[in-house]
Amino acid sequence: MKNILHKIVTEMLKSVFVCLPAEVVKYDPDAVNATIKPLQDNLPENYEVPILFTGAQNCRMTWPLKAGDKGILIFSSRDIDTVTDDSEEPEFTMENYNDALFIPTILFSENAAADPDTISIEFGDTSLKMWPDKIDIKTGTVNIEATETKITGNLNVGTGVSGIAAPTSIVTFVNGIATSILN
To answer: How much is the pTM?
Structure first.
């Protein structure tokens, strides 16, 4: 009797979904959803799956997703249509395959190991590393668009810089030394 109950429960649980490793098949950045393929159990692709990027009311962090990017496909314990479509009457579902959300992430040790000492962001050849007392940025070009830029403390320039020193003057620095001042 115990073996029969175990087999019945096991068969029933095969239709209950909680979390699966998966990958992006096709991404729609305007709708912020994707076609997602689970990486286990020969399950079919899941369409128009909402992507869970990091964010809150006044901020967000997104990144480009491409086919083959991996992550975790999670299944809501209730119908998500009321949240995603402003539906009035939720359908009663539990861990339904169609109530999925995708969290893009590096699975396991797929790429580089986590840095134990910094908050790190990497994108192509650009990287940002943040410690409690400093930030390192490595990239080809940095563009800053601001109505005002303030620097408190020392400014060390390794190669060259040029800019406007006063409303009518341009100062050029080389190795931290002013080499020309044009009025």
So the answer is: 0.66
